[in-house]
Amino acid sequence: MPQDRNTGKSSVFKTRCDKEHKASLKCVEDNYGSPDSGSICRAFFVSYKQCRKAEHAAILKARNPDNIF
Question: Domain CHCH, which positions (predicted)?
Fold first, then answer.
C-alpha cells in the first residue's frame, strides 16, 4: 500500500464510488483470462467512470461555488 510521504502512514483511497469500484473489480476478477473481458465489464467501467466524474465535479464546485461546470 502506498505511504503518505508526510506521515509515513499508509494512504487510503477515499471515494463515494466504492460500490461501482468494487463491482468493476469483481467483474474483472470473475472474467480474468476471458478474451472478451473488456467488453463484458464495459458497463461496470462506464458506471465507475461516470460516478468519479460526478464526484470530481462536486468537489470542484464545492471549492469554488461561483464557477460554472
Answer: 17-53
Measure the CA–CA gap between 19 and 30, rounded to whole angstroms.
Answer: 16
CA 26, 29, 31: angle at the middle one, nearest 5? 105
Say if CB 52 and CB 60 are below 8 A apart. no
Q: Which residues contact 47 (CB under 8 A, 6 or more apart)?
A: 20, 23, 24
What's the burial of 3, exposed, middle or buried (CB within 10 Å: 0-12/13-18/19+)? exposed
Taking only the tens place, the pLDDT of each residue in 43-58 is 999 999 999 999 999 9
User: Model's pTM, two decimal places?
Assistant: 0.71
